[in-house]
Amino acid sequence: MTAYPEKQTAITGIGQSKISRGAEKSALGLTIDAAMQAIENAGLKRSDIDGMACWPGGTGEANGFAPVSISVLQDALRLKLDWYSNASETSGQFGALFNAVGAIGAGLARHVLVFRTMYEATARKTSFANALNQPGERVHGIFNWYAPYHVYAAALQQALFFNLYVHKSGIRPEQVAQIALNGRRNAALNPAAVYRTPLTLDDYLASPVIATPLRLYDCDVPIDGSTAIILSHRDAAKDGPNPLTWIEAIGSSMRYRNSWVQLDALDTQAQPEVARMMWSRTDLMVKDIDVAELYDGFSYHTINWLENLGVCGRYEAKDFIGDGSRIALEGEFPINTNGGALSAGRMHAYGQVHEACVQLWGLGGARQVKGEPKVASLTTAGGPLAGSFLLARD
């Protein structure tokens, strides 16, 4: 197998602020908490950090989607950097991690601090924080195509794609429900999750339909919080306090039309080619995955990933999911062990990177998967964008 550069990149430290539906600190304060935790967890000092990356960068918008920029955090922590990167035009939310891998592989940095901060829960109290277009505003750009259908939020947009998937696959609501029910069961064992109260199938089926076929519990939870990850060159990770945990393979391809309104594959979006690229860069196979933290911005994305990773065949996720026992903590393919975005809170998959490390390092406590997990699968998704990678440890 070719020595791809990601195999020389390790995750050496993780940190996470308090996750809530109404923060007592500023967005920057939460980011500092997460960053300092991650640096300490890696056994490093601030002076060791010579690179930074985030997605999508500090947008400066009032919706809380990306409230903290690299420049602000760098100044707050007084970091001296040799490399940094933030950009929204990447292969999905993992673009910051993939950029960091490239920088480390090129010798531009040795220890990179990657962070993702959300402040949407607070922002939603005063604005349309989750809207693609705010009612009353002039519709512009690609959203001209959505406006006639009153698509003002991501749930409405994704429901259009999910409808096609439901039509082709025949998946039933009680099977879709298992993604949310599994997440809530796991969140009940996670003290940091924002929603921990029990959720039943009857509760799910009785919940409001946001946009057919998406129900309330199929949609992720806007939060205030920050997650930070330290990526280091593998050589620099050997003496760290955590088990050596490296990025085994990356899927970052963009082999479809890069268009939110002219998608080549409406019901799978960009996932299949991303998965193909990832599997082409490793000798590992699906059977080697011990735990999977699959993107669940909407339950639909998780269902898609089960198929596109090759866990089951196309349109066979409904049978694999069944009554939810296979994807449970004690099942053969445990997923979203911290509760995922549906119950732990919307960290745009960075919370699940944090959780994958928790699981691989055996720190999950009551939610720790059985055995000694060695390989985790991580994914993101949305429209023409997607990303995936395998995380492995000795």
UniProtKB/TrEMBL annotation:
Enzyme Commission (EC) number: 2.3.1.-
Alphabetized CDD domains for the sequence: SCP-x_thiolase
Keywords: Acyltransferase, Transferase
Domain Thiolase C-terminal: start-end pairs: 261-386
Signal sequence region: none
Enzyme class of the recorded protein, top EC level: transferase
GO molecular function, one term: acyltransferase activity
Keyword match Transferase: yes
Record bears the keyword tRNA-binding: no
PANTHER family on file: ACETYL-COA C-ACETYLTRANSFERASE, NON-SPECIFIC LIPID-TRANSFER PROTEIN-LIKE 2
Name under which the protein is recorded: Thiolase family protein
